[in-house]
Amino acid sequence: MSHSSASQTPEEILAYWTPERMAEAKPREVRLAEPAASPDGDADADAAEN
After folding, report:
1. Both ends of the chain: CA-CA distance in Å?
2. Alpha-carbon gap, residue 14 to 46, rounded angstroms
3. Rounded to an integer, what distance in angstroms lies between the CA atom of residue 16 and that of residue 22?
4. Predicted confidence band at 46 (pLDDT cuts at 50, 70, 90)?
5. Measured distance CA(34)–CA(15) in Å, rounded
6. No. of H helices and E strands in the chain?
7. pLDDT band, very low/low/confident/very high, at 26 (cuts 50, 70, 90)
8. Burial (CB count within 10 angstroms: exposed 0-12, middle 13-18, buried 19+), residue 49
9. Which residues, 6+ apart, have CB-to-CB distance to 43 below 8 Å?
10. For the stretch 10-39, what's the b/e string if a residue is b when 16 or more beta carbons lie within 10 angstroms of its beta carbon?
11. Is 46 exposed, middle or buried (0-12, 13-18, 19+ CB in 10 A)?
12. 37: which residues sit within 8 A by CB, 6+ positions away?
């Protein structure tokens, strides 16, 4: 999980993202949480029951 600081105004954030910075920007890696395993260790069985 990430968070941002409220130290910049929306205008400052918009000013930062120049066309050059946008062109060089790389997407962030998104990691999804692993499903919780059931007591018998079968995470898929728990998901199927819900």
Report:
1. 25
2. 44
3. 9
4. low
5. 37
6. 3, 0
7. very high
8. exposed
9. 34, 35, 36, 37
10. eeeeeeeeeeeeeeeeeeeeeeeeeeeeee
11. middle
12. 43, 46
Q: Tell me the percentage of the chain whose pLDDT exceeds 90.
A: 46
Rounded Cα distance between 36 and 47, Å, is: 9
Question: Which two three-digit tokens encode residue 49?
Answer: 């029951």
Query: How high is the pLDDT of residue 24?
Result: 96
Q: What kind and span of H or E run contains 11? A: helix 10-16
